[in-house]
Each structure stands twice: as structure tokens, then as C-alpha cells.
């Protein structure tokens, strides 16, 4: 009477090592790869591979082999990865700016390569938290140069909600301009630049050009 066995696939899904041991046990009894393959509803190549790996490595040969390739010719060299991570930590730049800087220094890199390295080492871009605690990026810093993009705003200096009437009257007496233009560079390198200009002219209150 032929003993019935679950299929090799069913056993493998439950426990790969146990499945291979069961196949190996039946083969030892029968010494027939075709018969063993038929019992487990698989093919001779599977049985042959299990037997061969056991003969070469013993019990260790029944375990899953690492799926990572032995050679990775396209992998970024470790010293280049170290340069990318150092540049990221030093400047805080994103993939495009880091790739651009390193290319200028004679290290040819694509932004995609920089992105993979930053992702592999969990060196993601910096974020600002909103009041609702959601991650939100306000600008695409990776595409910006310093002094390339500014936030421009017009501020009323005679702010009645924060200054006393006496202070405002005194400011008018000494001819302090009532309005102030502010331009802030959104890409600090290494510190944020701010440009101020006072305007003596009459502008609509609470005007915002940003």
C-alpha cells in the first residue's frame, strides 16, 4: 500500500526545512527520485537538489539559501556611499543638489543613485511639522539654489493691536516709516538670509505679496 503524503508545496509553505526532510526521508527509503517526486507532487529536479544540498552541507543544506546575489556589479561602492552620507549630513541637501555638488567635484553620480543610498541608510529629507503633526514639505529644497527663491512680505509697523497709541505717536514724530518690506531666502546656505527695506509710502493695510 502506497502511503499518501501532502504535496511538497503545501509542506514548504508551512515549513521549508520540514518539507525537505520529508522528501529526503522518502528518497532514503526508495532510492528513487522519480517515485519520491511523484509522492510529493513535485518534479525530479526538486528532489535532486534537496539530496545534493544535503550531501554537500548536511542539515545546513536543508535551510533556505540567502536570496541576495553574491556579486552586485551595479551596487554603489562603499566609499561613494560614505561621501554621499557625509554630504547629506553636512549640508542637508537632497538628492539633486548632492549629485550636482559631487559632479562638480569630479564624482559622477545620478540623482537616482543618491536617492537609493539615502533611502538605504534612512537619511530622508528634512520635514517641518504642522500644528496637526503631519509631515509637510513647504518647498522642493532639492531643486533650489541659495538666493534663488524668496518669500516676500509687506508688514505694517504701526500695528495698533500690539503697540500703544503713545508708541505709535512717538514713531510718527521721529518719522519711522509705517511699512517694511521683508524678503527671506527659503534656501539657507548655511544661514537664512533676510533683506529688509522700510517704505515711507502709503500702502493698503495688511497687504501681502507672498
Question: Your description of this structure?
Answer:
This protein is of the alpha+beta class and 210 residues long. It folds into three domains: 8-62; 78-129 and 136-142; 145-199, no CATH class. It has helices spanning 8-14, 16-30, 33-39, 44-57, 78-91, 95-104, 111-120, 165-173, and strands at residues 128-129, 135-136, 150-156, 179-185, 194-199. The strands form two sheets. Strands 3-4-5 form a three-stranded antiparallel beta sheet, with no helix packed on it. Strands 1-2 form a two-stranded antiparallel ribbon. A hairpin with an 8-residue loop joins strand 4 (179-185) and strand 5 (194-199). The longest helix has 15 residues, at 16-30. The chain is elongated and about 110 Å long. The N and C termini lie far apart (86 Å). The model is unreliable at 201-210 (pLDDT under 50).
Poorly predicted spans? 201-210
Q: Indicate the overall shape.
A: elongated
What would you report as the Rg, rounded to the nearest angstrom?
34 Å
**pLDDT average, as an integer?**
78
How many DSSP H or I helices?
A: 8
Q: What percent strand?
A: 5-15%
Quote the distance from N terminus to C terminus: 86 Å
| H/E element order | HHHHHHHEEEHEE
Largest sheet: 3 strands, antiparallel
In terms of topology, how is this protein built?
Blueprint: H1 8-14, H2 16-30, H3 33-39, H4 44-57, H5 78-91, H6 95-104, H7 111-120, E1 128-129, E2 135-136, E3 150-156, H8 165-173, E4 179-185, E5 194-199
Antiparallel strand pairs: 1-2, 3-4, 4-5
Helix pairs in contact: 1-2, 2-3, 3-4, 6-7
